[in-house]
Amino acid sequence: MNEQVEFEKTEVYIHEKPIEEDINGLLIEPEKVGGRLQIVKNKFSNFVRFLPNGLEAGTQDEWTLVMNSSVLSYSKDTTNETCTIENKNKNLNKYKFQFDIHELSSVRRIYQGYGIPCIVFMLLDGRLLPEFYFYKGGSKEFLYALKNYLVFKKDVADPRLWSVQPQNGEKFRQSLYELSLFNEQQENVMKKFLNEPVQSTLLGFSKVTNILRDVIKPSQAESSSKSQFYTYDYKPNTQDQPDEISDLMDSLIDDNIHSTQNDGYEMVTKVDLGPMPIVERGPTLKKEDISFDNDGKILEPERIKEIIFRGGVENSLRKYIWKFLLNYFDWDSNEKSRAEKRKMRFDDYYRMKQQWKTITEEQKMKFSLLKERESLIEKDVQRTDRSQEQFKLDDSKDLVQMKEILMTYNMYNFDLGYVQGMSDLLAPIMVIMENEVDSFWCFAGFMNKIELNFHMDQLDIKLQLNNLKILLEFFDSKFSDYLDKNESSNMYFCFRWILILFKREFSFKEINRIWEVIWTDLPCRNFHLLISISILLMKKDDIMSNNYGFNEILKFINDLSGRIDLEKSLKHAEGLYLQLKNYENVPSNICEIVGLPKAINKEIEETQSKFLYTDFGTESKLTPVSSCHSLKKHDDSVEILDNIN
């Protein structure tokens, strides 16, 4: 049969299901099948086809589609056509398939795994095809190619979902408008930006934020300079965020913009920060360290946070203190107001829980997004921390409770809903709280801090990885250059660290400690990035001496799980912060990342030809946490810890 390939994208992959589900971490290199995703035209119609690498086209009308453990085989010739379903699992033919382009019902473009864009097709008969991962980019180009044959409408509830519409002139024009991810002015900026040479356009990561401000909306540019851990008043609208921003970050990183070749401009590539300061950790927070006034208000909350930062919280006290760290209770609240708020929280929780509990199966059939999220929650709950005593048994009440908390959070924050990884964050909170309602509101408080991590465009995650690369470039330019030369400048191997805050890197006991440290917001903004830098610097010799490339680095970093010295990492991370605080010429972009004060040199900022420097004329507002704490109680303090719950 005569046919023509209208569009083709190579380096597209299908991820196979991992053999052992209990170890399928978000960053583990998956088993995958690569191939070509094509749009093919013949005299009858147009087709979307996936052809795995290693297979010739063969008979054009024989295809196989894998759906879970079943295989749908289709063959057609001039006289008849047959369709069979059988269970089999062999060779690459099971991944070879095609469908008529007019059988397409919808397309979803999302970021999965460790930040790789993928496309999911749903057909008119309800079949959901496997996710296609575009490792070298091009997912948008494929959608643009599809719009030549179909009319798309962006879904209001799910901005990543594009539904196929009946064709007419007006809808076709609307489709073109909605697929335009830049307006005209932004597109011109992008073209100018991408067409200019790296050396003359990008003079180091110190300029990325300023360049992005010309392309991204002001509110988004503001978000790019502040981590979600410390910005509570900014909640970007995911519908308004252009997909191109994520791709822009990819292109910035992939183009090795850390080059020191700057056409005569000077770049600072080596900084002498002096010796690493000696940092000591301290004892855990205990009952006797906490004092109250006569109304039950905690005295000296900042001192309490310092103790927590230095040594964490005694396990028996966590159920009480975590409620403050996660904004369940305010630090300046008294005993009466806390009791009233807790009662109100119980009422609010059960009201929201009833909202999804009372939805009938018939309603669910017409509420596809809720049904899809419930299915994902059920799958994730069954493989979350099953080695822990509370979650070991299949009929564990804690597993049921975990699902109910996540489903209720889906109703509480329906715009965000449920995203893979949230169950990882909830499990330790449930173990500590031992109460469904308290667990929910502490989890909600945790999510308020890191919600942007779970947005589907992953813009904030990529900006954090960008900031991580900036910090690494400053602390160790040699190691940074090594990563550049080994296709690892994007820092994607740290994706899991950032997404779920080291949850899979440390033991269950240790994760409580590191989260407590981060929740204090001490000693600086984005301390989790300094922890990441400290781990990398302590492991850089292993990476460089073995000449690891991208795949080896990815595997090495993920194999560190359970083998990282937590206390040593925290000491080293604080030492890095003290080096920055004591250094007189910290670049302004570094100051921005960690929250140090800065003085801007306008001439340097305008030329953007080198790192920006700041002169500390006054003492930093963020003083280093003292290694010694005064635990003396006030004379009028009253101990009321006996009834802590």
Secondary-structure blueprint:
Layout: E1 3-15, E2 32-42, E3 46-52, E4 62-67, E5 70-76, E6 81-87, E7 97-100, E8 104-112, E9 116-123, E10 132-134, H1 139-146, E11 151-154, E12 161-165, H2 169-179, H3 184-195, H4 198-201, H5 208-213, H6 218-224, H7 243-254, H8 301-311, H9 315-325, H10 335-357, H11 361-365, H12 368-381, H13 397-412, H14 422-433, H15 436-450, H16 459-475, H17 477-485, H18 495-499, H19 508-519, H20 527-545, H21 550-558, H22 566-582, H23 588-594, H24 602-607
Antiparallel strand pairs: 1-2, 1-10, 2-3, 3-7, 4-5, 5-6, 8-9, 8-12, 9-10, 11-12
Helix pairs in contact: 7-16, 8-19, 10-13, 10-15, 12-13, 13-15, 14-15, 16-17, 16-20, 20-22
